[in-house]
Design brief:
The protein is of the alpha+beta class and 186 residues long. It contains six helices and six strands; from the N terminus they run ααββαββααββα. The protein has a four-stranded antiparallel sheet with strand order 1-2-4-3. A hairpin with a 2-residue loop joins strand 1 and strand 2. Helix 2 crosses helix 4 and helix 5 packs antiparallel against helix 6. The protein is elongated and about 50 Å long.
Length: 186
């Protein structure tokens, strides 16, 4: 292939890139997020936990290899866990903005985070319409909260299938024996 052919091919590739970029921009403007793969979804779930729970995420934006996030509370972010998940770096910009350098999978993780956030807000709207919790479930919840050191000791509560993922203010006030007696397995 001659020089002219290579230039035409490069021009076509650049045109395709512009179209893809325009598609992404239109998705962002419309509020739609593309489908999330299972692998990206699983990784995003772990990132949500390390970032302090879905409620801690206010704004999710992606820039090439970085997740650019605005958070409610930066103090609940677990940087060591982020790095263990593969983050190459964590940059705190101010009291509530954070960049997590994750590499080429940044866009798929961001899309998954946005999908979870969107799903969470829909579930929150639905939960407002649900009937009150049964007396037995409410009593059990009160017992768990008491064993965990009281409501003021709970910073973040996240549900993952059969587990509660909690961020607590003070681990020393947790009554592990009482938790086991209530049925907690670990």
């Amino acid at each position: 292939m001659g020089i002219i052919g290579k230039l035409k091919k490069a021009g076509e590739a650049r045109k395709d890139q512009k179209l893809k970029k325009t598609d992404r921009e239109n998705e962002q403007k419309s509020g739609k997020t593309p489908p999330v793969s299972d692998a990206a979804g699983e990784l995003a779930i772990q990132y949500v936990t390390a970032l302090g729970g879905i409620d801690n995420l206010k704004v999710i934006y992606v820039c090439l290899t970085r997740l650019r996030l605005t958070l409610k509370d930066l103090s609940v972010v677990n940087e060591a866990e982020l790095r263990a998940l593969g983050a190459m770096g964590v940059v705190k910009q101010d009291e509530n903005k954070l960049q997590v350098i994750v590499g080429p999978q940044a866009e798929s993780i961001a899309n998954a985070l946005k999908a979870f956030k969107k799903r969470d807000s829909k579930n929150e709207q639905k939960s407002r319409k649900k009937p009150p919790v049964s007396d037995a479930a409410g009593e059990l919840a009160i017992q768990y909260v008491t064993a965990l050191g009281g409501i003021d000791n709970l910073k973040v509560i996240d549900v993952c299938l059969t587990r509660l993922r909690l961020t607590l203010k003070d681990l020393s006030v947790v009554n592990e024996a009482e938790l086991r007696a209530l049925g907690a397995m670990g």
